[in-house]
Amino acid sequence: MVDYKEVKFFTFSFFMFIMNFVYILGTAGSGKSTLASSLLDTLRAAELNVISVNLDPGVRWLPYYPEVDIREYIDYDKIVEEYQLGPNGALIVCVDTAVNYIEKMREEIEKFEPDYVIVDTPGQLELFAYRDSGRFITSALSKNNFSIIFLADAIFLNRPSDFVSIMLLAYSVQARFKAPQINCISKIDLLSEDVMEKALQWVTEPLSLKESFFSEIADIKGEFSERIFDILLEIGGPGEFLLVSSYTGQGMTDLFAQLQRIHTGGIDI
Ligand SMILES: Nc1nc2c(ncn2[C@@H]2O[C@H](COP(=O)(O)OP(=O)(O)O)[C@@H](O)[C@H]2O)c(=O)[nH]1
Ligand SMILES: [Mg+2]
To answer: What CATH number does the domain containing 106 carry?
Structure first.
């Protein structure tokens, strides 16, 4: 016989605890922590209950106050000393060690009952995206309810081949995590009007990149980029890119709308 009291309780608790995790990943110095801060402001302005989690054990200063912080569990300086490691080696040990604290961090997060959890990841993309511990932490902490914001610096908009290399990186992150992903180019406030105009064309109409290849010095690398671009198009497209600036707030409304679409509207990945 069905125990309706139990069913009711289950449904109630199910609705109580839908926490949407958003991991911000990207190239070193692309502005992940700054975007985390700006996104927190945007979501809070929309009256959502949002908290932040810092997963960068080596960071000295953050532009936001994280409610949950890996540095409370792991002492980067102590690991450098104890294992006699350089910065990269120590960060690898930190991220691998973080696996042991995921349950505790999850408990801390649950106490806030947030709608959204914005997770800032270590400076170096490869540390998190290309190690098994990073992937494990991502799914275990969020219990598989997560999306990814992939962030790359506006400097990659200088040449079409640079932009293709970022598309490839975005695709490789997508292939690693197999989660809904929003690709963003950061710091667009630094772009000149000319570059901004070209960038807008590239992101809204990826095929326009093909024409730009001709204007780049024809060499073997240019040809290589063009072929990679063709393959990306063939296998379903390089994906959309949003142009954002955490300083001016450009693109933040679009980013928010995409997040809401993924987490509350439901989209196929
Ligand atoms: N001009 C500009 N600079 C930014 C923007 N976002 C971040 N930065 C700067 O880029 C640097 C790296 O930012 P940070 O958030 O620490 O990057 P992370 O290593 O990816 O977390 C800092 O000096 C930031 O002030 C932006 O939207 N515009
Ligand atoms: Mg950072």
So the answer is: 3.40.50.300
